Every structure is written in C-alpha cells, then in structure tokens.
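Model the whole thing, not chain by chain.
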Amino acid sequence: MAAELRMSTPEPRPVYWSVQRELWENRSVYIAPIVVASFVMFGFLLSLITLPHRMQIALAMDAAKQRATVSMPFSFIAGFTMLTAFVVGVFYCLDALHGERRDRSILFWKSLPVSDRVAVLSKASIPLVVLPVYIFTIIVGAQLIMLMLSTVVLMGSTQSVAILWTHVKFFQGIIAMLYALIAIALWHAPIYGWLLLVSAWAKRATFLWAFLPFFAISILERMAFNSTHFAKFVQYRLIGWFAQAFNAPTHGSPPVDPLAAITLGKFLSTPGLWIGLIFAAAFIAATVRLRRNREPI
Amino acid sequence: MTETRPMFWSVRRELWENRSLFIAPLAVAAMMPFGFLISTIGMPQRRRAVLLLDPVQQRALIGKPYDVAATILIVTAFIVAVFYCLDALHGERRDRSILFWKSLPVSDRTTVLAKATIPLVVMPAIIFAIIVVTQFIMLLLSSLVLLQSGLAGTTWTRFNLIQQSLILLYGLIALSLWHAPIYGWMLMVSSWARRATFLWAVLPFFTIAMFERIALGSSRFGLMLRSRVMGFAAEAFAFNKYGSIDSLTQLTPGRFLSTPGLWIGLILAAIFLAAAVRLRRNREPI
C-alpha cells in the first residue's frame, strides 16, 4: 500500500518547482530579454533595405574592416541581449529575497517544506543558469533569422552572398557564445551572490546598499591617493572575463575564426575566477543563514 | 486646533520612511575628510609649486578636491533620488500601506506632489547643506596642514567658499529643473508598474536607442538622453578653459532659461506627474 502510494504521488522536486516559482513571479526575467531582442531585430529588418548597398561599400574595404562591418549586426544583437540579461539579473537578485519579505509572502513560502538552502539556491540559479540558457536560445534564434533574411535579400539583389557567409561563421559563433555565456556566469557569480546577500539583509533601499559601498570606497581611494585601483578592480570584475576567456582582438575587428580565439586554459587558470567563485559561495552561504532568521519587514 | 498642513506632514512622512535620502549622502560625505586628509601629505610643497602658475589655473588646481567632493555628492544624490522615485508609489502598494495612507484625508495630488518635492526640492537642499559643510571641513583641514608653512590663507582666497556656495546653489536649482522630467517619469512608472520598476523605467529608452542604432546607424536618441542627464551644465555655466567655475560671471541663467530643452522638459514633467496622480487614484495593493 505504502509502495503504491509512493508510486502514485510524484516526487515533490522542490528545486524544480522553486525555480518555476521564480519564473512565474518574475516574468521580467524572460520578457525583458526577448522584448529587447525583438526590437533590435525589428531595427535590423528596417536596415535590410540598405543591406546590398552597404555590402557594396564593404567589398572595397580590407579584410578585417570588412569582417567587422558584415558581422556587426550579429555581435550587436548578442551583446545587447547579454547586457539586458545582466541588468535583469542584477535587479532580479536585489529583489529576490527582499521582495518576499516586503510583501510578507515569505511567511507562506517558509510554511512549505522547502529549506532555505533550496530557496536561495533556486534563486541563485536564475541569473547563473536560467538566464544564460534562455538568452542563448534567443540569440541563436535571432542570429539564424538574421542570417537567413540577409541571405534572401542579398540573393534578390545583384550582390553575392559569399561576403556574408565568409565573414559570419554561424556555427563557430554559437559555440563561442555558449562558452562566453558560461564564462560570464562564472565570472559574475560573486556579483550575484553579493546582491542576493544584500537582498536578504537590507530592510530598505537594496540597490543603494549593494552599490554605494563600492562607490564610496573608490571615491575614498580617489580622494586619498589619487589612484583608481579599486575602481579598476570593480571594472575587472565586470568585464575582465573577456580578456581572460578570449584572445582580445588586436585592432578592434572580430577574429576570423571565433573558436580559435577561445583561451579556455587561460580562463580556468585565472586566480580571479576562483577567488570570485569562493566569494560567491561564501555570499550564498551567508544568504542562506540570513534567510533562516528573516521575517517580514 | 492647529491646521493639519497635509503637505508638510506628507513630506515628513517620506523622510521618515526613506532614511536613505539623507543617510546615503551623509555616509559618502563622511568619507571625504578622511580621504582628503590622507591626500594632504606633501601638500605645502605642492602648494608652492601651484602658486607659481597663472591665477585661473591656481584656482582650478587648488579647488579641484572641493569640486570633486561636490560632484560626487551630487551624483550620489541623483542615484538616491532615482531609486527613491522608483519606489515611492510602488513600495506603498507592495507593502499594502497604501490602504492606510488612502484612508487619511490626504488627496492623491498632495501625496504625489509631496513625493515629487523630495527629489526636486528636499534633496537639493539636503545636498547643498552637506556639500557646504563638507567643503568647510576640508578647508579647515587644509588650513591646519598648511599652517606651519604660512600658506593657510591661499586655499581660502583661491576657493572662496561663500561665492562657491552661491554657484553651487544656482547649479543645484538648474539641475533640479533640468532633471524634473526624469523624476516625473520615474514616479509615473512607480505608480503604474506592478513589478520591476527599474526595468520599466530604463529598458524602453535603452531599446529605442538600440533600435535606432541598428536600423539607421545613428545615435541621436542616445545623445538626447545624454543631454537630458548632463546637458544642464553646458547651458547653465560658461566653463573656463580648465573646466572650473570660479566667478559668478560664469553663470549664464539667461541662456539656461532660454533653452527650449528646459521648458519642454518641465512640460513633460508636469504631464508625468499629472498622470501619476491619476494612476494613484485607481491603484490598489499589488
């Protein structure tokens, strides 16, 4: 009988449903990136009118400049979707543990048999796993549509499609992007961890608590020593992943083969990555402890 | 019985509920004298070198830490005010306190206007006082450091605190008028959006700028936004070649008041605030 009952009732899978809950409650997590990507896409559609003309101009350029011009819309949509996802991730994290205290729903969520650890880890998985996977599919879809439309438009004109296909390495680009998204998630993990910690701790003004200490420290350093080491450190944490994970392009043009630019060994041997991950783990552990004693504000 | 003065108490309520409005600028300001004190090591020697330069450059170099302190505090106040506005009408719906506040005989117009006066009037006043006091403390510290070398007076003459305070006051008023549509927009989003106020406030502009960039290859919209955030300085002041303002003749209120952008912005601000009042009327807890 007991065995039968166990068979008939599905497992509760608390992590899965906690992540689902976050997505239901924070629809901006999936709406914002797709809206931004759609608008950029719409802009791209309008720009198709002048595409043959621009390709004509690009033909006269040298190889590196040509590559930059042709692949610009593709890297553009990828870059801006990633930036949107970062902004969404930051504000999601700031609200994740603060909002449920503020609207008192924490009382309900705590009444469920879901541990604080599961609740916090599922919230952390949104910026670290869910958003990267989600925007990966958006960007791949958008780039595929853009590539096909460009091909159709160029075939309908007197221009040859060869210039497009030689410079836009679609499949290599996808793999390089997947790698970049994983690298960004690992590199930004301490940022999200810190934001979750502030969200669990602050009673009000989460953004100010998260942001002002860093701002104030860099100001203090600037005033006292007229140096900017701390600001450079913050900048490194935000964008330093690129220089570690990829061979930085020499004169601003994208690499011929995106896969050849990947420097996985260098990225994994960067101390900053591992120190960051240790900090992320410490912040998330502190968040779990904090949530245990937190009550509605 | 005394008058109820709903406006006064509504503003008081905001200050009680949002202590970050004065705590954040105070905390940043408290760091300034420490940073400045460390930077005064070796100041007498440097000061002697500076005094050999031409007067305008002397003012620019001697006054630099004071200008930097003022700028940083103004930026802090801007950030605090933006996040205050985004939360002002959203937070009270989210924590359901709107039910209590609406039960009081305070109209929606009074409430929204009280919230709008925080970034437009209260914050500039707070930040003005904080900046003047911070600069005064820094001046005293620099005098103490320079006392032995007999150069203590050089800071006070090159950085005239009273004149600088007048310039600052004018700058803060200009900035507040120039930023009024930004705060109005934030308040409107705050009263309208159910969640993610920051994203609703910022993403539309970001998206339009990106759209223009990829469709037309131009960035006029982005430049328009930039001028809305920082454009006031170019209209309200005539900077000298070192980028500093050291006399009242460098203020150009005439040019500032005749900028169409100022008046268009103020009209937009009024529309946004009117919309926020209307929206609040029908809003309920989220």
